[in-house]
Design goal:
- Helices cover about 85% and strands about 0% of the residues.
- It has ten helices and no strands.
- The radius of gyration is 29 Å and the shape is elongated.
Length: about 220
């Protein structure tokens, strides 16, 4: 019985493992190895690109800290272009806007930030982008738009204190737009939702000021 089974197995192997099939299996195995090698190469290349981008980003930030905003913008733009798709490139886009804001070029900052937001970056970059856009809009006296952007930034933020701080900014911009009632509602929201943060004290002060003005 065993001898017969072994004979059958050998016969099956001989029929199945034909020279053509062996060749195909060898090719298939080689393809698997090739895919693994390509995957490894792409991952390694991505890591190198991210590392190089991070170093270039730090260089651009150093230029910005020196006060040479024009040169900083150029370097940030180079990082964003050369290392597209990396975290460094996204940070560089934010760096461009920050440098332009410091240089008093709020309108240019607004344009670059709206373009960046339109690319739908990851939330960790989207929140700061909306915050910077709000600041740029506020600097150009577009207070209503600024308030909306501060609120978006607050919604995207995950740290309670920062969420509350951005709402305080939204309240300030809303008040500047002339909508006192909406500003009061925002400050009350801060007190109710973020009463355990330091932002509550400022919100209560602003509420006292606004209610006194309305009296």
């Amino acid at each position: 019985m065993t001898s017969t089974a072994q004979h059958d197995d050998a016969s099956f192997a001989e029929k199945f493992l034909t020279p053509q099939r062996i060749k195909l299996l060898s090719i298939g195995g080689g393809a698997v190895v090739l895919v693994a090698l390509v995957t490894w190469f792409l991952m390694a290349a991505g890591q190198r690109k991210e590392a190089f981008g991070a170093r270039a980003l730090e260089s651009a930030r150093a230029v910005a800290e020196s006060g040479a905003m024009g040169a900083a913008v150029q370097q940030f733009e180079q990082v964003a272009t050369t290392y597209g798709g990396t975290d460094a490139a996204a940070e560089a886009r934010l760096g461009i806007a920050q440098a332009r804001l410091v240089a008093g070029q709020a309108e240019l900052a607004i344009v670059s930030l709206r373009e960046f937001i339109a690319t739908k970056p990851r939330p960790r970059f989207l929140g700061p982008a909306h915050s910077l856009l709000a600041t740029a809009l506020e600097n150009t006296t577009k207070h209503g738009e600024a308030a909306a952007e501060y609120r978006k930034a607050s919604e995207l933020e995950t740290v309670p204190y920062l969420k509350a701080t951005l709402l305080l900014d939204a309240g300030r911009a809303t008040k500047a737009s002339g909508d006192r009632d909406a500003a009061i509602a925002i400050y009350r929201e801060v007190v109710e939702k973020f009463g355990d943060t330091a932002a509550r004290s400022e919100a209560e002060v602003r509420l006292l000021e606004l209610t006194a003005e309305a009296a």
